[in-house]
Amino acid sequence: MNDQEIISLYFDRNEQAIKETDTKYGKTCMQVSMNILHSRPDAEECVNDTYLKTWNSIPPTKPHSLCAFLCRIIRNLSLNRLQELTAAKRSRELTVSFEELEDCIPLPDEQSPELAALLESFLREQSETDRVLFVGRYWFACSVEELAKRTGLTSKAIHMRVFRTRERLRAYLEGRGYRV
Q1: CATH code of the domain covering residue 155
Q2: Which one of 53, 116, 125, 173 is CB 3.0 to 4.6 Å from 178, fit for a cystine?
Q3: Contacts of residue 107, Cβ cutoff 8 Å, sequence gap at least 6
Q4: What is the pLDDT of residues 33-83, one digit of tens each?
Q5: Are both 26 and 98 inside the same structural domain?
Q6: Quick check: 106 and 180 in contact, CB under 8 A?
Q7: pTM of the model
C-alpha cells in the first residue's frame, strides 16, 4: 500500500491505517528509536506512541512524506523518553553526536523554519554518500560503527566525511548570514 492510500485510511478514521503504517514503517520507526534509546521496551513504547500521535494528527495534517512525518514523531518521542530516563546523566553517544553539530548550526530561534530550509538545500547539494552519512549520524542518531556496517566505509573515513560535511555546512550557513 502506498503512502497516499495509508493517509486516506487515516482521513477515513479506518484503524487499518495503523496496521498498514506498522507493516510499511514499523521497522524504520523501531530502528530510529533503538538508535536513541538502546532499550527495546522503551523503543516499542515510543513506536506505539508514534502511531497514537499519528492517528491524532492525521487529519487535519496531511503529510507530504509519511515516512518523514513518522520519523520526526518517533525521533522526538524517543529523545523526550531519553531525557526522562537520563535526567541526571547523559547518553554518551547522543551527546557526542549533538556536540559535533554545535560548531556549525546556530541555536534555534525564530529563524528556525528558514534554517531548516537552508539545511535541506545544503543537503541536496551534497553527494548521496555524504548526505546519507550526515542524516544517519545527526537525524537518526546512528553510531559511526553502525554507519560503517551499512556503507562499507571505515570508521575513520566516516569521521572524516562527516567532519568535512559539517565544515561545508558551517561555511554555507555563514555565507547566508548565520553566525555560527
Answers
A1: 1.10.10.10
A2: 173
A3: none
A4: 999 999 999 999 999 999 999 999 999 999 999 999 999 999 999 999 988
A5: no
A6: yes
A7: 0.66
